[in-house]
Design brief:
Oligomer: single chain
Helix content: 40-55%
Largest sheet: 10 strands, mixed
Strand content: 15-25%
Length: 359
Amino acid sequence: MLSSVVYKHLAQSPENEVDLARSYCLAVARSYWKSFRLKTGVSWTIRRYSGLVIGLPPDLRKEAYGDALRLSQMAPDDAGYQLAIQYLKLLPTTYRSQNGVYYTPIKIAERMIADAADRGVDFQTARAIDPASGGSAFLGPLCRVMRKEGLSDQALVDDLCSRLTGFEIDPFAAWLSQFVVDCELAMIAPTALKPPLIVHQCDALQVSNRFFGTYDYVIGNPPYGRIPADDVPVERYGDIVSGAPNLYQLFYKLAFLLANDHGVVHLLTPTGFLGGQYFRALRAYLEAHASAVSFDFFVRRTKVFDEVQQELVISLFDKSQSTKSTDVRSIDVAPDGALSLTPIGTVHLTWSRNLLHLS
């Protein structure tokens, strides 16, 4: 979708690459919103982005308009995902790797949410959170499944915004997450007032403990990558760190802190936490605080995240269950993004100090 014109400008301004990437994607979003308002009849104005905005030259403004026209043919969450992927591709590689930024395809997000519903999560009443909302792959679909029938537009928006939360550290990604939510709500409740913010731009690992024990469902694709041990907030996460810490390791504990006593934690992460010395403290914590309901292992190292090779697993934990019976499946992603799941079996877990055994 991105043309050589965009990359040419990025190459010419390496010192402003992040700000230019954000400014370009913001221009696309603004053009998209103009056509979206005509389509829905919604009266809301697009939210203000408070970060630095660089004025675009005419050729980039033209490219942004063309991208917005293409996105206008898509559903809001698909358009939001494509815009998020645009943003990622425009960011410097070093920025992406340092912040562990990889956005989840919509079909995977929808599959995870459907599985959670099958496992008993009642989305008509549940409070849900994505603590690393990125391109809003999860928040958009959650708006649809959490929607209650029979409510007025305003009551619908009020209800959804009281039960759905997102955290995101990247200021533009946080704005984009909220933008996708706004588009979803505009589609289903066009006569309501402009919704309050549900996406908090913050360091999720440092959030106030007032959020803890609040949510029935915690879902996400947390950032991953090694971080210096000195960067770990020891008071909150020291008990699950052994050796070289990884970002997603900390987000696992955060997810459990956010979930209430009957909550479900549903994360897409690398498989590394299931074995090895560095994750032994995390495994002990998981064993003590929840039951592993299912593991879905991806068949391929590629085709999940854009331009990323990684062994991945979707893990679902229930804090209210004591059973040791765990479903294991393989999941494959076709070139068109379609998913196929193959049951492998039901196993009993043996959590040892150093390794998770499937027996």
